[in-house]
Design a protein that fits this description.
The protein is 43% helix and 14% strand. It is α/β, with parallel strands linked by helices. Helix 4 runs parallel beside helix 5.
């Protein structure tokens, strides 16, 4: 009984951290806790579903999705806004909330205490992500510049993938943001501090003005970063690591070792690989076919000028592997690029795709092996 009380108290404290969101969206986040305390787990799951719907409807309107979100099911709301949610953990949490709600209301299955607690945990994931979003019209908060907001969303989503949760966020100016993220592993708690902006000088001025109330110097095992748009020629003495946004992934991926592993695969063959590319016509479902005397050059140009998925298929020994290995050449495009070559031919009997990816890529990642697949995705 004491364990249940402790779990409820912990959940209650976590939900209290989202009081600005609950006030903004007019959601009573304590009602699901009260339903659990009254031994009404199905009611708690229903209330979590309603709170989630309120968040999804706000997203629908903020991103100006076509049509009205009113009177739509939670499934329709998720489908309407999923394009704007880049974090896989958030999409998974939304799906789990929908599934748990349907278990009792539609499927007729009994909803237990553990189901309600799981539903609340998933709501925490959604709210953690939601408070990283930029303020919208009518929200009382500093509105970040769109490019800074995009960096904030990517970095917070990256750490969320590594099982961190957002503990604090402050939008300090229109171009600077402070994030404190934490991860609990047993009795150990890891912290990461990020201050994101355009230049080192700008961030140092903001930190100095904010004073000791901002930076968490007393926290243990704390990784501290100033993430800027461009590096400074003379970096001042600071207790933060100064790193460019484009170079931040180098903290996660060992690019030197990765490039060395590619050296044996990259390069062109004596003869170009011929092929035919097929794509859907713009504004129609009609396919267009076009022959390419050098498929690698066409593929490089396509990936250089657009963000797209490409499926390479063909018979045995026609050059599929050679074509893909040619994309490992670091000289064909400018800017940072992380290319991973997954050799499906190395797959062991009964080995899953996730296990294969982890086995081949774990040496290049500085994250826990259990998180390699999620960070890779």
């Amino acid at each position: 009984m004491m364990q249940i009380v402790d779990r409820l108290a912990a959940l209650k404290n976590e939900l209290e951290d989202f009081s600005p969101i609950s006030a903004r969206l007019d959601i009573d986040l304590q009602r699901p806790i009260k339903a659990l305390e009254a031994d009404l787990p199905e009611g708690a799951v229903t209330l979590v579903g309603r709170a989630t719907e309120r968040v999804l409807k706000k997203l629908w309107r903020d991103y100006e999705v076509q049509g009205s979100p009113d009177d739509r099911s939670i499934n329709e709301l998720i489908k309407g806004v999923r394009h704007f949610i880049s974090a896989p953990a958030v999409l998974e949490a939304l799906t789990d909330i929908q599934r748990l709600r349907n278990r009792g209301s539609h499927d007729g299955h009994e909803v237990g205490y553990d189901d309600a607690v799981l539903s609340l945990r998933k709501l925490v994931v959604v709210l953690d992500w939601y408070r990283t979003l930029p303020a919208r019209d009518g929200d009382i908060a500093t509105r970040l510049d769109p490019d800074v907001e995009a960096r904030v969303e990517f970095l917070s989503g990256l750490y969320q993938t590594m099982n961190y949760r957002l503990a604090k966020r402050f939008d300090l100016t229109s171009s600077t943001c402070y994030l404190l993220l934490q991860r609990s592993r047993g009795l150990r708690v890891d912290y990461v501090e990020l201050i994101i902006g355009n230049s080192v000088d700008e961030l140092l001025i903001v930190v100095e003005k904010a004073g000791e109330q901002l930076v968490q110097t007393e926290l243990p095992t704390c990784s501290r970063y100033l993430v800027v748009n461009f590096s400074a020629s003379n970096t001042p003495e600071v207790t933060y690591r100064v790193i460019t946004y484009e170079g931040f992934l180098n903290e996660i991926v060992d690019v030197v070792t990765l490039a060395a592993s590619h050296a044996g695969r990259a390069g062109r063959t004596a003869r170009p690989v011929r092929g035919t590319h097929m794509q859907l016509g713009v504004g129609s479902n009609q396919t267009e076919l076009q022959a390419a005397s050098d498929a690698l050059d066409w593929l490089k140009n396509e990936l250089r000028t657009s963000s797209t998925n490409v499926l390479v298929c063909g018979g045995a020994a026609v050059g599929k592997t050679t074509l893909l290995a040619g994309l490992l050449d670091p000289e064909w495009t400018s800017g940072p690029a992380f290319r991973f070559f997954i050799d499906l031919g190395d797959r062991r009997p009964k080995e899953s795709l996730e296990a294969l990816v982890v086995r081949q890529l774990a040496p290049f990642f500085s994250v826990d092996t259990s998180r390699v697949f999620e960070v890779f995705l």
